[in-house]
Amino acid sequence: MGIRTREEYIESLRKQKPNVYMEGEKIENIVDHPAFRAGIESAATTFQMCHDKQCSDLSRVVSPIIGEEISRWTHLMRDEQDAFAKIKLMKGMGESPCPCSYRCITADVLHAAWAASHDIDKATGSSYHQNVVEIVKQAQREDWIIGGGFISPKGDRSKGATEQADPDMYLHVVEKRQDGIVVRGAKSHSTAAPYTDMLCIMEIEFAEDYFVGFFTPVDAEGITFICKRGHAPAESKQLENPISSKYGGHVESMIVFDDVFVPWERVFMCGEYGPGIIFGVILGASHAWHKCMCRRNNMELSLGATGLIADYNGVAGAAHIVDNMCEMSMAVQIMDSLITYAAVEGWKHESGIFSPKLATVATGKVFSSKRVGEDRFIMQDAAGGLVATMASEKDYFNPEIGKYLEKYYKGKDDVSTEDRIRAFKLIEDMTASEFAGWYHAMCISGGGAVQTFKSIAASGCDLEQCKTKAKRIAGIE
Amino acid sequence: MGIRTREEYIESLRKQKPNVYMEGEKIENIVDHPAFRAGIESAATTFQMCHDKQCSDLSRVVSPIIGEEISRWTHLMRDEQDAFAKIKLMKGMGESPCPCSYRCITADVLHAAWAASHDIDKATGSSYHQNVVEIVKQAQREDWIIGGGFISPKGDRSKGATEQADPDMYLHVVEKRQDGIVVRGAKSHSTAAPYTDMLCIMEIEFAEDYFVGFFTPVDAEGITFICKRGHAPAESKQLENPISSKYGGHVESMIVFDDVFVPWERVFMCGEYGPGIIFGVILGASHAWHKCMCRRNNMELSLGATGLIADYNGVAGAAHIVDNMCEMSMAVQIMDSLITYAAVEGWKHESGIFSPKLATVATGKVFSSKRVGEDRFIMQDAAGGLVATMASEKDYFNPEIGKYLEKYYKGKDDVSTEDRIRAFKLIEDMTASEFAGWYHAMCISGGGAVQTFKSIAASGCDLEQCKTKAKRIAGIE
Amino acid sequence: MGIRTREEYIESLRKQKPNVYMEGEKIENIVDHPAFRAGIESAATTFQMCHDKQCSDLSRVVSPIIGEEISRWTHLMRDEQDAFAKIKLMKGMGESPCPCSYRCITADVLHAAWAASHDIDKATGSSYHQNVVEIVKQAQREDWIIGGGFISPKGDRSKGATEQADPDMYLHVVEKRQDGIVVRGAKSHSTAAPYTDMLCIMEIEFAEDYFVGFFTPVDAEGITFICKRGHAPAESKQLENPISSKYGGHVESMIVFDDVFVPWERVFMCGEYGPGIIFGVILGASHAWHKCMCRRNNMELSLGATGLIADYNGVAGAAHIVDNMCEMSMAVQIMDSLITYAAVEGWKHESGIFSPKLATVATGKVFSSKRVGEDRFIMQDAAGGLVATMASEKDYFNPEIGKYLEKYYKGKDDVSTEDRIRAFKLIEDMTASEFAGWYHAMCISGGGAVQTFKSIAASGCDLEQCKTKAKRIAGIE
Amino acid sequence: MGIRTREEYIESLRKQKPNVYMEGEKIENIVDHPAFRAGIESAATTFQMCHDKQCSDLSRVVSPIIGEEISRWTHLMRDEQDAFAKIKLMKGMGESPCPCSYRCITADVLHAAWAASHDIDKATGSSYHQNVVEIVKQAQREDWIIGGGFISPKGDRSKGATEQADPDMYLHVVEKRQDGIVVRGAKSHSTAAPYTDMLCIMEIEFAEDYFVGFFTPVDAEGITFICKRGHAPAESKQLENPISSKYGGHVESMIVFDDVFVPWERVFMCGEYGPGIIFGVILGASHAWHKCMCRRNNMELSLGATGLIADYNGVAGAAHIVDNMCEMSMAVQIMDSLITYAAVEGWKHESGIFSPKLATVATGKVFSSKRVGEDRFIMQDAAGGLVATMASEKDYFNPEIGKYLEKYYKGKDDVSTEDRIRAFKLIEDMTASEFAGWYHAMCISGGGAVQTFKSIAASGCDLEQCKTKAKRIAGIE
Questions:
Q1: Sheet holding A223-228, edge to edge
Q2: Predicted local confidence at residue A1, as pLDDT
Q3: Does residue C97 sit at the D interface (CB-CB below 8 Å)?
Q4: CA Rg, chain D, in Å?
Q5: In what order do the strands lie in the sheet with A211-216?
Q6: Ranges of H-type helices in B100-231
Q7: Residue of C444, C450, C454 best to disrupt the D interface, most CBs of D under 10 A
Q8: Looking at beta carbons, which residues of chain C come within 8 Å of B330?
Q9: Quick check: B410 and A224 CB within 8 A?
Q10: In C, which residues are within 8 Å of A322 by CB distance?
Q11: Across the interface, do A334 and D329 touch by the CB < 8 Å criterion?
Q12: Residue A57 pLDDT level (bands cut at 50, 70, 90)
């Protein structure tokens, strides 16, 4: 099929018949449903980019696996150069207003499954890896976007997977057949899942039935998506919500697995929690690294929006605003440094794939999650109260009262009222909209809890070696 | 009339005919308009409280001005004891879910006008003060809620009021007649204005025509309200948006004054920018003090919500969560201390009214505005991703799929799924809803810019005296 | 004897013969020993103040216990007014360059012993309280400064008092005789102890032998002080170390108790760990409150020093310096507020003494300990590198090279070189001297660990009540 | 001469006769003077390392300029690989207890002079570059350590170099002769200067006489060093001050130039403030980069010391300590990332030398200067009060009282008392000694003010491009 266009991606969704509910209703056709519009449009971004002049080169690469030109989004990294190319591509994404194209997961799971199946085969004599090779080939040829289902509901968190009152609180294998496995349970927090080409589902608890990884079509029997609508405004806008009216946050799903059958050729681990643990390591590093790059782009946009509104308000020279913009700039550069250092200090897994340094990207995840609140404070502080009180575009376009807004929303002479309104509406969308609320939560909890990443980040320093150094200097033998 | 009930307040609004626009449409009847419901309900809170058993005592006081029992919300403070009574009342308000009853402004402007008219009369021989006395009497007898219009659009902020290309960028007096004045201009950021009993409008620039203060009915000729809808969800909810579906943020207005006539008896300053400057000082201190008390209540609720979700998730003992709750507790106590200290160090103006210490409440405003982002981070961190991904109540109540949610949203054994959902929906409403966006902006920019308050806060230390002390200790004579 | 003068205090020390070691040598006469000079001078500060014109009124009060005028430093607070008087007195202390007069402990232990002996007597029928009454009378009549010994070495902190390999790691009673008790163990971190009039020693573990409180003369048999020298420079200075050359940090001691006999009339608790627990509560609140007031004074001096050096360097208008001084001012006001609020919310113990609110002063302890590093950063940032590189006063007074320093250390025209040098030397003393190191450590660890106070501070909010409020608002019954 | 040993370096100093004053006395022989011991020992570190087995490889490189093996400390970087090699070497330095070998400046000035002389020659036809080539050859052959003099006293900072009342407040050329120039003025903050092989002096103001750069021997006629003693304790220690008793901070100097003659062959710029501006850029980037690496090493040691004392106190599992160590680890990794990113994004100057990215290292300078105070807080918090109150080693070794300390300073069973004492003395040296004060000041002000670096750091983001992006997304054309 080759590298798909935006349109080809969207059309392909029509062939799938996932069982989808939202706000109490069954949705037969998600492609044309208004609540899915912005999410699908967001997911289409990487497809469109591959055909844009500016990003086409960054987006294309010849796959060493299938020997054809593919989208870099399905490419498996083999070395630092691949990592640098991905960094460039992700920075290119930053030019798009889309805050989340959701294409990271595709790479995350392919790398992780590739490595984990290799290690398991080596340790147990199984033959999962070839399954993954075939999946990767198909994904590259058909230019897939893959959805992920990683986090089970977990019930009572003070108890483990096998100790829950309800055994389904963690997804698990209920039957192993000759032709495949049957799984039961649910996955929370699955972003964008119903409008992907394939799902990758995993459970990685230390218990045989609770350690499993597989791919499955979105419309396999027994799968139900219970969706939360994305945060695009219901109506289209001219000035308002410049981000969220087009790319207003993805549809989130809980995916319920009611005894779903998965044929063995789509399974890449099943019970091997010893060697398979690498899955989580590779997945976590890849995902946090992508997240760092997204956050970096958003932080740069926050800086730009602050600079813009400061100009329009005539306060660009105010010392506290200059100082705040310095802090924002330094934060972007710290993110850039972490992203690059993670690549420079990356490592090649025996299976051939390359992975960025986990502790470094975990540091980036923690650091950047703290910046969301701070950047919003800075943006709102530079903008002032109109972020929360400015009248709507309908008022502006109303013949009776629009003249008042044209007159009284005017700022500096050389900036049109409409432009000033647009700048405020951008900041409102980034800091005070429902979409902004979703985005903040995603930055804090998406991909795992901040505290978890903090512990992982700490592993980047060899504490024992540091203590040994301290001892030597203190004269302790 | 005496102390009004919630119903009397709402009914009284029907007698007013303000000229109101919202989202491009003229609204004839705001009382029954869905977009005004939550705002009017919020404004009704203090009226209801006066008749609640628990708060009735705190809410009532005999006015030394009219000698009758009145609502404490229209009472003028005369000493520290009044201030302590107000603190108690405001803490009582904290028991209500309503985040902003908007009754603070009533007290703010009555105190400020009382003092300013006194000082101006004394300096210039004018007779404004008696006007204010009459207004206060009426406000107390009729139990008013007063709206405020303080901030002009300001146009190009690098230029002053009289240097703007458009002279109307600051509100100003265009004509002085024997019976009154005519004013032109606009006021931004007027919260709740159309559903108040009276407006208090001021401009306090250092130029004769741009220094004016007056009261006016909301439906005076020439006044137009261009409104931004509050952030209540359109439909009523059972589990979701427990705050905003009832009290979802006020309607914000730009108030346009198109040559509005104000009779002299409602004017309390007009051109006397020397002695009249006290207006801003008293207003600012009163408003920031109220704001500190509101923020304190919200910070306490944030602490409670964090504790609740931590319990429900089974992570109440996690060290980072305990530590975060310590920080939240300390922040509440710092606010309590600032609020009380501002009263202890308050001062009695020659006109008889008592004012909390400005620098202290300015410190509280700055300190508490920074906590919004931090508290939200903590709440979301304790709650986890379901804040952003939990399905809607309609799904929960749907017979097909509700069973899945009942099963998979279950947490600890002793907490019902519904209660856990409610806790998440509370946190979502407080951190990731459109209402939360408005609230954040109001905390940062409401009542004036953070940087402005920072400068005011600095005045609380006598820098010259501190330097003198440093000199003496350094041995510099 | 009445209120002593500085000289009377110092002379009285000559009558005591404590067993003192420092840096490996036995010191027979501490009064004339150079390493004790600055410490004794610091301890003399409160005595001098009582006779200074400015502070005399603040410093004197008629004792309701002995009916005579006494120093307020030995007075027992009975109500909020006493607390306000103490706040005034402590602010007066802030005018002195002395960073620690060590007189707080006198009040801390007298209040705590007064309350604890009362509660124990009531619970057990013992008669300790009269002992304390007599001690208080003597302390007031003879104007004592009392030393404290509170913290045992503790050995392995993962084990309790009775589980240690060496039973002496916590101080304990080894014998109860008819005429008194015999104690063994050690007390770390005893500031100023050898130059006080009496020691108050306590252990408050939950084990009979490890719960004891008593007073003892410094030269009782079996007591040894192993001292760490204070941080005054060895030579006297003209320009340098304006604080530490006079008041350079106290002598710290480990006090060893090698079977020390204490007669019953100086014992106020011995084994009653149930009712006696109040001792720690009152002591902790009193001490942290005093500490808050000291830190507040130091924070104000830091602000003054920053303002001074900024003036002298010609950078007082630089935006980041202005902003930093705003932060410092707000921090001082937060401290002022906490100090006052602790008094307003203080409580009267059944025994008649008044105690500030513990959670509030714990908040102040935590908040102010964090400010030390921040204030030093600000001071150094405003001052620049000369803090660390400026030549010594001996160079300045040297005829050969002094002329170069006179020429090249000159700043603004209207500030003499010598004054500029003095300002730098003040900041060096406050931020980069050995004394500064001691002071920082004292701010962080003195009076207890920051983390301990954080937990105490959290108790200031009623978490269960906050959660109930959150539940009610969320609709959870 | 080749790569020198520690001894050869020290012996070579005996041949120089600089005019040195300290504390009012002229010092004829600095090599054997106790106040210079620790500084000279620190400067000797890099020489020693070149002959250590572990670091020898990292330390040696064949110079492409002279074709011989040289110390990497005098090597000019030509590409990213050289930069990576330097990073390794600097991390190797981190194994030494020496906090500052002062060898960075050697590289800083050689790179900067190399580039600046090239640009000036190209722009003006001058022939400075050959002078620098000869200096570099000599520096490499003779393995120089070079001192720097960069910062003039500046007098009144609100006035420029040419507006000062005293023209000598900035160093300037007072005469140009055929054989050389004569300069007058002074340089503050010259670390280690009297014990270097050569000085590099610069002034880079925008005025002909105030723009000059040259090399000069330390004992040239007319040069006087007015020195501040380093912060090593006067006596040698066994347990105490494990860092500062050996490497206790450098001697700082003001260098006075009283009409000093410099022959043309040692001048590399003189009046060409247009093209010569590159000198400051290269110097600043090189120095800040080195500083980042030093700070990173110190931050790692701080982490190790915290871990060590936490172990010894038995509190290594306490949640707040674990959390603090996470923060320290993340900070080290942010520094590592900035250091590496600065190399990856470095650039090659036309003259052939390679320079790390300025904005990135400026970010590192700002970030790491803030960590000093935070890391100290963490160390002291983990250690507790003994940091400030522990008795001296003389007490510990005293036969009378040493037994008490052996007994009472004992912690966990498996840690000897002596080791525990050593750990406390390390932390005292790092946080509460006079040396610690100097080090803190050097971190904040050394190499330039934090605020200056903040502005430079901000240049790392292209603000205009960010604003353009914000505009595009907001729909502003």
A1: A25-27, A20-22, A223-228, A252-263, A180-191, A172-176
A2: 63
A3: no
A4: 24
A5: A146-149, A198-204, A211-216, A267-270
A6: 104-124, 128-142
A7: C444
A8: 363, 366-367, 454, 457-458, 460
A9: no
A10: 319
A11: no
A12: confident
Mean pLDDT of chain B: 95
pLDDT of residue C2: 83
Distance, CA of C343 to CA of C288 (rounded, Å): 12
Give the relative orientation of helices A358-383 and A434-445 as an angle to the nearest 10 degrees: 150
Average pLDDT, chain C: 95
Closest CA to A276 of A203, A356, A354: A203
pLDDT of residue B275: 94
Interface size A-D, in CB pairs within 8 Å, comes to 199
A186, HSE (Cβ side, Cα atoms, 13 Å): 26
| Token pair belonging to C30 | 């501490």
Residue A71 has pLDDT above 90, yes or no: yes
Q: Is B311 on the interface with A (CB under 8 A)?
A: no
- Say whether residue C323 is in contact with chain A using an 8 A CB cutoff: yes
> What does the pLDDT look like over A25-50, one tens digit per residue?
999 999 999 999 999 999 999 999 99
How many contacts (CB atoms, under 8 Å) link A and B? Answer: 256
The length of chain C, given as a count of residues: 477
Question: What six digits make up the tokens of B374?
Answer: 């931090």
Q: Answer whether D323 touches A (CB < 8 Å).
A: yes
Is residue D376 within 8 angstroms of chain C, CB to CB? yes
Give DSSP secondary structure letters for A305-347.
HHHHHHHHHT-TT-HHHHHHHHHHHHHHHHHHHHHHHHHHT-E
Which of C334, C341, C466 lies at the smallest CB-CB distance from B363?
C334
Residue B24: count other Cβ atoms within 10 Å of its Cβ: 18
Q: What is the pLDDT of residues C291-320, one digit of tens each?
A: 999 999 999 999 999 999 999 998 888 888
Longest CA span, chain A: 85
Buried b vs exposed e over D404-417: b needs ≥16 C-beta within 10 Å? bbebbbbbbeebbb
CA–CA separation, D188 and D253 (whole Å): 7
Regarding pTM above 0.90, the answer is: yes
Would an 8 Å CB–CB cutoff place B227 in contact with chain A?
yes
* Measured distance CA(B186)–CA(A407) in Å, rounded: 10
pLDDT digits over D385-419, tens only?
A: 999 899 999 999 999 999 999 999 998 889 999 99
Token pair recorded at residue D182: 């004569």
Residue A211 phi/psi, 5-degree rounding, is -130, 110
Cα–Cα dist B335/B361, whole Å: 9
Pairwise CB contact (< 8 Å): A323 & C320: yes
Any bridge partners for residue D60, and if so which? D71
DSSP states along B19-71:
-EEETTEEES-STT-HHHHHHHHHHTHHHHHTTSHHHHHHHEEE-TTTSSEEE
Per-residue pLDDT tens for D306-337? Answer: 999 999 998 888 888 999 999 999 999 999 99
Residues C273 and C309: beta-carbon distance below 8 Å: no
Beta-carbon count within 10 A of B33 CB: 18
A431 shares contact with chain B (CB less than 8 Å): yes
Q: How far apart are CA D91 and CA B408, in angstroms?
A: 51
Q: Does C404 touch chain D (CB under 8 A)?
A: yes
Residue type, A138: Q
Contact yes or no for D20/D33 (Cβ under 8 A)? no
CB B379 within 8 A of CB B305: yes
D130 touches chain A (CB under 8 A): no
Nearest chain D Cα distance for residue B326, angstroms: 12
Does position D63 have pLDDT exceeding 70, yes or no? Answer: yes
Cα C473 from Cα B298, distance rounded (Å)? 12
Nearest to C467 among B304, B344, B367 (CB): B304
Q: Give me the pLDDT at residue D233, please.
A: 85
Ranking B320-329, B370-379, C228-237 by mean pLDDT, the lowest is: C228-237
Residue indicated by tokens 């290119």:
A92
